[in-house]
Amino acid sequence: MLENLGSAEAFKKLETVMRDIKSLKIQGATNVAIFGVRAFAEYISTIPDSHDDLEVWNHIEVLKNRMFTLRVTEPALKNGIRFVISKLKTKSDFGAATVAAETYIRALKRSKEVIAKIGAARVEDNSTIFTHCHSSVASKILITAFEMGKNFDVVVTETRPVYQGRITVKELLDVGIKVKHVVDSAMRWAMNKFEVDLILLGADAISVEGMAINKIGSHLVALAAREEHIPLYVASSLLKFDEETKIGKMTQIEMRDPSEIWEEAPENLEIYNPAFEGIRRDDIAAYITEKGVIPPQMIYLEFQKYFEALKQHSTN
Ligand code: RUB
Fold first, then answer.
1. Structure pTM?
2. How far is the CA of 45 from the centre of ligand 1 (A)?
3. Nearest alpha carbon, ligand 1 atom 12
4. Distance between CA atoms of 144 and 122, rounded to whole angstroms?
């Protein structure tokens, strides 16, 4: 068990947030990053500088690694933790960890506002949009388009095994958007039947090749969209760029508990429950980001420019 070096209360709060992230109580890349980075920084800021240097830095490293493995396919959380740590040069900087965290969180929240406006401009009046799972960014685009007075329908999949599609359904219905709901295996049928005009997905991670990693089923969405000649857009902050893909690693895909699929499954049955999969860059018309509509090939450069600027800006 890891002993706390800072406030016991802040440590307990961090452990609760970690548990909630792991159990999906806190769900979706943006939320995972906001709650995770904030709790991490709030705890770090309570570590007094009376502790031995090596002990403190080891402690932070262990915590960082623990946060990184909570949901392995979530670079927005990892980038946020790295951002906070990059601001801690000496132990006397630790009090400023929360300031760094709030800078990062503000950037993420602002990105959602900007993406919503840009994305809403892509939603045509009298059109049908298709989405999968629950992306707070994709939902915000749809709600913004609706508030602009646009009239459209949205087709939403269930998103088995844990039905995040229902979160999207409720959010959209609550504001008055017309929603059609189908099981995941009806996705191609629904695209064809309802003459879908545009596919809008969120993302958990973006690779150096420009591939988007999103909820399992997203690759199938892309294949069906290709067959139906429907453009697919990915709404995502650049802060979901996976830095590790730059050094040759592949984005890790989280494998979740088989019991999410079948609680009382027959013995000796092998159940696989991958949470995410990649959408090839050739199947992505463009990303809708805080820096505008960007082709997949440009994401890496745009991320680098943006993340560097964010780091510079926040030191001033
Ligand atoms: C949620 C999911 C979302 C992305 C984007 O998966 O795949 O589409 O995380 O979300 P899970 P957002 O439910 O397993 O976390 O747009 O809110 O960042």
1. 0.95
2. 28
3. 135
4. 11
Could you tell me the distance, in angstroms and rounded to a whole number, from the CA of residue 301 to the centre of ligand 1? 23
Q: Are 284 and 232 in contact (CB under 8 A)?
A: yes
Nearest CA to ligand 1 atom 11: 28
pLDDT tens per residue, range 130-147: 999 999 999 999 999 999
List residues near ligand 1 (CB under 6 A).
Answer: 24, 27-30, 133-137, 164, 202-204, 214-215, 275
Q: Which amino acid is at 123?
A: V
pLDDT tens for each residue of 145-175: 999 999 999 999 999 999 999 999 999 999 9
DSSP 150-163: --EEEEEE--TTTT
> Quick one: 155 exposed, middle or buried, by C-beta within 10 A (0-12, 13-18, 19+)?
buried
DSSP 3-state of 28: coil
Q: Which domains does the chain have, with CATH numbers?
A: 8-110 (1.20.120.420), 112-313 (3.40.50.10470)
31 forms beta bridges with: none
Helix residue spans in the chain (DSSP H): 8-22, 29-44, 53-68, 75-86, 97-122, 136-147, 165-175, 187-193, 218-227, 299-315
What is the layout of strands, in order, in the sheet containing 292-294? 178-182, 152-157, 127-131, 198-201, 232-235, 286-289, 292-294
* Number of residues in the chain: 316
